[in-house]
Amino acid sequence: MDLTKKILHLLERDAKLSPKAIAVMLDQDEAAIEAIIARLEKQRVILGYSTIINWDALGENGVTAMIDVKVAPEREVGFNDIAERIGRYPEVQSVSLMSGTYDLSVVVTGKNMQDIAGFISHKLSTLDRVQGTTTHFILKRYKQVGFSFEEPREDKRLVVSP
């Protein structure tokens, strides 16, 4: 695996890693690591750094919904412009083009179900090319971006020896 990909894998797993720590882990020069990271940021390969937070552990009871959206594609631009427009709303966390019955999958967060309902009825459904939606509310998160929200359980199976 080349150096750039090694750096990206390390940062993907832990965005807090400093260039110095990465340099030590990969036995490289710190300045070279900093230059590679700066280049990747400039090229928009690295788009940002984020933290996975278990809000439930803090008693924060926000709501997340996945909304399947059926869209009429537009000649010459397909789904790109409507996906970009939907992505501009602050409550939208992600927009993805999907295969299957629906065209876009939109992840939205709000304080409560009424926030999500308001977004769908006042913002999303009123867009010209939106033909229909189906909403799925996330009831419990078990794992996100490789991180488990639950403490690992102790394996209580009996050891079997030959």
Helices and strands in order:
Blueprint (H helix, E strand, L loop, with lengths): L2 H11 L5 H8 L3 H13 L20 E9 L8 H8 L4 E6 L6 E7 L2 H12 L5 E8 L5 E2 L2 E2 L14
Antiparallel strand pairs: 1-3, 1-4, 2-3, 5-6
Helix pairs in contact: 2-3
Biggest sheet descriptor: 4 strands, antiparallel
CATH architecture of the largest domain: 2-Layer Sandwich
Domain tally: 2
What structural class results from the helix and strand content? alpha+beta
CATH class of the largest domain: Alpha Beta
Summed up:
With 162 residues, the chain is of the alpha+beta class. The protein has helices at residues 3-13, 19-26, 30-42, 80-87, 113-124; strands spanning 63-71, 92-97, 104-110, 130-137, 143-144, 147-148.
Characteristics:
single chain; 162 residues; alpha+beta; Arc Repressor Mutant, subunit A; Alpha-Beta Plaits; four-stranded antiparallel beta sheet; two-stranded antiparallel ribbon; 32% helix; extended
Explained architecture:
The strands form two sheets. Strands 2-3-1-4 form a four-stranded antiparallel sheet. It has helices at residues 3-13, 19-26, 30-42, 80-87, 113-124, and strands spanning 63-71, 92-97, 104-110, 130-137, 143-144, 147-148. The model has no long low-confidence stretch (mean pLDDT 91). It has 162 residues and is an alpha+beta fold. The longest helix has 13 residues, at 30-42. Strand 2 (92-97) and strand 3 (104-110) form a beta hairpin. It starts with a helix and ends in a 14-residue tail after the last strand. It has two domains: 3-42, Arc Repressor Mutant, subunit A (Orthogonal Bundle); 58-140, 2-Layer Sandwich (Alpha-Beta Plaits). It contains five helices and six strands.
